[in-house]
Amino acid sequence: MKRFLNILAVALVSFMFMATSSYSKEVKVGVVLPMTGLVAAFGQSAWKGIELAQSMEPTAKDGTKIHLTLLDNKGTKVGTANAVSKLISSNHVKTLIGAITSSDTMAGAPIAERHHIPMISSSATNPLVTKGTKYISRACFIDPFQGAVAAKYVYNNLHKKTATVMIERDQDYSVGLAHAFIKAFKKLGGKVVSVAFFQSTDQDYSAQISTIKAKNPEVIYMPSYYQEIALFCRQARQYGLNQPVLAGDGAEADALIKIGGKAVNGVTFTTHFDPHAAATPLTTKFVNLYNKKYKQNPDAMAALGADAYFIVLNAVSKAGGYKATPKKINYYIRHTKNFKGVTGVININPKTGNAIKSAVIRKVVNGKFVYVTTVNP
Amino acid sequence: MNKKTILTVLSVVLLFLFLWYGDGHLSTYAMRIWEEVGIFLMLAASYNLINGVTGQFSLEPNGFVAIGAYVTAILILTPAQKEAMFIITPMVPWLQNLHMSFFPALIIGGLVTAFVGFLLGFPVFRVRGDYLAIVTLGFGLTIRVVSNNTVPITNGALGLKGLPTYTTIWWCWGWAVFAMIVIMRMVNSEFGRAMKAVRDDEDAAIAMGINTFWIKMTAFITAAFFEGVGGGLLASLITIISPTMFTFFLTFELLIIIVVGGLGSMTGTALATIVVIWGSEILRVVEQPMDIFGLHIPGIPGMRMVVFSVLLILIMIFAREGIMGQKEFSWDSLFNFFKKNKVAQK
Fold first, then answer.
1. I need a surface site. Which of A99, A307, A360, B130 has the fewest CB within 10 A?
2. Contact B28 A88 (CB under 8 A)
3. Residue B104 exposure: Cα atoms within 13 Å on the Cβ side
4. Which of A368, A360, A314, A371 lies closest to A340 in space, CA to CA?
5. A18/B161 Cβ within 8 A
6. What are the extents of the domains in chain B?
7. Residues B211-225, buried b or exposed e (16+ Cβ, 10 A)?
């Protein structure tokens, strides 16, 4: 028995050595995503996108390998801060990709900023994430843009002048996007006739529906997640509320149609990309490979994750491959110009770190997501 | 001063020497985890005072930590920052212009929490056992709903962002050591003996003439103060707070720590804090992709939770009362241990 244990110990030690095999020409990139916890679905999607992107283009122009290290943040702020800290000081990464939600990203960002390590988030849309920073960037558009796109679409394309806004009170995503929409809609000359609030796990929307009915708006803007939107639509249609419902990128999930059924027909939402309306050659290639590998269409999280990877790869190539310093990589991330990514053409504003890119409007038609239009910034 | 006091002082000095050395030599990541250990040690020790020593199964910490975090955060943010952050509704003016340095903000955070604890004590200590757990659980949920809905004070779901990072290793461990000294002295005092009496048999304690209500209140308010301060330290360490940070999971984590350490044992809590906080970081190894004898094992995210749970189950099987049980580490037992060993060698 003892001898067996000895052998086991020796074997374990040798595993450890073998596990830390090193490559000479590589750039280490840390990835912080929620792989467990409440928002794990988003993190896993993004990781699928990043992994596929890496298998498509594993090396920079000079042959430098991109070495990804994934750490789970459990979808918490403390977890994100710890993971970012570990990647920077123990793994010595030169660049970071992550995290998914805005508030998690903001918990890790000050650490990256302090160590002068560039960090690019795939999907943190809150404007405060990059505000006042030099090293934090993002691959997605920001809430004020998404809100304004929805407002313009309602006012200019649908020719509707009055709206009710449904706000999910305990989700910063919903509060931020609703605020952006209201501001933009009023600026265009529209009128927000009422604002109704609800909570994440609410099942019954009859109180909100009766107030909305009394105000009789022309459209209902509900920046929330798919589950709440689906439940709300079902009940609203039952009570004879037939106004068009508009939403943000949180609506995009097959579950929306599964839960909502016929009631969600006509739900229109702003999002990051459409797999069927190829914005660039890379979109087509990515969507095809994704379908082959995972037997499904990529969602926005996967596409944005891939874009974050491609932006980093592009910056590493320009910054001189394996000799690139974090500072140089950051410079080229922030000076991303006319980059043809998966979700479209991406420009990053060097001053703010925010991506300037087009938004896509999609709609549910007969139980399927259909491309409506692309709105350029 | 007797020998044991000198030893205790020496070990505290040694702890700070270690931290001082670490501050310059260990990686910022390691120091960060040590900072977290300090904060969680304070939270867990104060939670153990109410849950382990006084035996009141309360589930309040997430509520108290939230109050402390919010009060401290509001006080250390500058008026300009608050104005930029409150985009939905402006902040109430008298809070908007309130601004002070870190130490008074922490103290006020602690005192406000203690006051809330004082008010909360009257209704909740009318019930015992499982009912107390339910009532205090409800309190934690209430705090979360309130912080989501009092937008002019807490900024609702958007939370408070960009807090200045004042929290250093010295703040964390200074407070942790201070809290440990206060709590351990309390446990070994008249109050502490009364608390233990309440835990072991409340009716007997009443019969002995102990005012059990105020004994519970003393433990509750002390715990509330330190949990409030801990919340403030955590807020400044993470630099962003929002209602989602203070869910029941926070209480749950503390509960794991005190159960693993041993209900009622402060030194056990200290050990368990290190095990739990460092454990989940060290176990990240099992999630990394590995090449073993040419066999490639891809990283499995979430694997460390599985391993961690198995470890917890093992601890609960082989040390049912936690690492230390109800015992405390003492110099005497250490000396005895060495003496026994010497005798054995002879």
1. B130
2. yes
3. 6
4. A314
5. no
6. 25-345
7. ebeebbbbbbbbbbb
> What does the pLDDT read at residue B345?
59
Which residue spans within A202-307 are E strands per DSSP?
Answer: 219-221, 245-247, 268-271
State the amino acid at position A248 in one-letter form.
Answer: G
Compare CB distances from A179 to B27, B88, B291 and report the shortest one's residue: B88
- The CATH number of domain B25-345, selected from 1.10.3470, 1.10.150, 2.60.40, 1.10.10: 1.10.3470
Q: Cβ of B161 and A106 within 8 Å?
A: yes
Rounded Cα distance between A359 and A249, Å, is 10
All domains in chain A, ordered by first residue: 24-141+278-358 (3.40.50.2300), 144-271 (3.40.50.2300)
Question: What residues of B are in contact with residue A77 (Cβ under 8 Å)?
Answer: 238, 240-242, 245
Tell me the ipTM for this assembly: 0.86
A312 touches chain B (CB under 8 A): no
- Residue in chain A closest to B28 (alpha carbons) equals A89
- CB-based contact A229:A222 (threshold 8 Å): yes
Q: Work out the average pLDDT over A302-315.
A: 94
Q: Is the pLDDT of residue B293 over 80?
A: no
Question: Which residues have C-beta within 8 Å of that of residue B33, sequence separation ≥ 6?
Answer: A82, B277, B278, B281
Q: Which two tokens mark B324?
A: 């230390």
CA nearest to B292 within chain A: A15
Task: Give the minimum alpha-carbon distance from B100 to chain A in angstroms, rounded to a whole number.
Answer: 22
Q: What percent of chain B clears pLDDT 90, i.e. is strictly above it?
A: 56
Interface probe with B: pick from A12, A125, A170, most Cβ of B within 10 Å: A170
